[in-house]
Amino acid sequence: MDSGLENVVAAETALSDVKGDIGELIIKGWYVEKLATSLAFEDVAHLLWATAFEDMPSTQDLGAQIGAARVEAFKRLPAATTNSDIIQYLRRGWANERDDETLGTAITLAASGLVYTAAAVRFASGQAPITPDPRLSSSADFLRMITGTAPQAHTARALDAYLVTVCDHGLNASTFAARVVSSTRAGLTSAVLGGLSALKGPLHGGAPGPVLDMLDDIGDEANAEAWIDQALAKGERLMGFGHRVYRARDPRADALKSAASRLPGTAGRIAFSEHIEREVLGKLRSKYPNRALETNVEFYTAILLEALGIPREAFTATFACGRVLGWIAHAREQISEGRIVRPKSVYRGPMPELMEA
Ligand code: ACO
Predict the structure, then answer these.
(1) Superfamily name with CATH number, domain 16-202+311-337
(2) Per residue in 230-255, pLDDT tens?
(3) I want to staple 53 with a disulfide (CB 3.0 to 4.6 A). Which of 103, 157, 167, 303 is the partner?
(4) Which one of 42, 97, 169, 243 is the catalytic residue?
């Protein structure tokens, strides 16, 4: 039994390669750093899905179809509730989508994630949702649907850098969940809901909001050492650090730090974050000298999404809006394998003759 399936190979994939020992990530032939500075959300949808669907249109047509699908999704917005949990709202929205294995459903899921997340942000602050503009890029429209103003090109570009950086990452927990669901032939929507449900946990995609909580709680560089010592003494995990696969620095952390540093007004926040990062890494090295615990993607995700004006309650849903591209590509890859995922377990429970009558 391999706890956490750490050394189990459970899939062959042509989608991404996480080289944890040297801190490298390749997505469909692109180093993640290059992907982050070169491609937009729509480009990466095309890149990841090109071999998954026989009826894949050109990148430009795919972008137009995603824009049109945003408009359609807005007509199906779930009703606002007093529950302001953005993941719950996104899950309700996606749960109502048709559930099959087609490109049309893939486009609907990719487009509607952005619409439902933006609407949930508006509802959470007591504001009306904003109708999508299909002429804008997905990133620009997402920010416009949240803030009410079309963003400048460099701001939309920074969100693209985020969404494409997190689009896929080997057999992480949420992608594995999506692959298991799709192996039963339940449909892409079911696979995406499985992925989202795994992503929301604080040990996976739920970490970046708590990263900001930690930075706020520390407040000042002078408090850092005592704060970290206290948290570690209580056995808490420091959000944005550590990773199952990376034993070197997560390359996505630097891709996102660079994207944040290109935005105006972020220098002070980044300098503070770097200080906290150095302190945490030093403390983790002292506490776990035999286990390399480095900065992961979530630390600078928090800084970048905060700089983009996205509220921290929406960070995990925004992550899902990028990762959904990978979940769908993996689901299709799993379906092409043609076999249900069904590992074995070892029974350690009582034997019948030992049970009391
Ligand atoms: N803070 C404090 N201690 C930690 C941290 C951390 N961030 N990460 C690991 N440790 C400790 C573990 O508690 C464990 O200690 P123990 O032996 O005393 O129990 C030891 O280091 C070894 O842990 P790992 O085997 O490296 O952890 P694992 O692979 O099981 O978990 C995980 C990886 C979940 C990412 C973990 O590092 C963690 O909880 N990090 C904080 C949450 C976080 O940032 N999650 C986002 C990950 S990136 C992503 O999913 C998109």
Answers:
(1) Citrate Synthase, domain 1 (1.10.580.10)
(2) 999 999 999 999 999 998 889 999 99
(3) 103
(4) 243
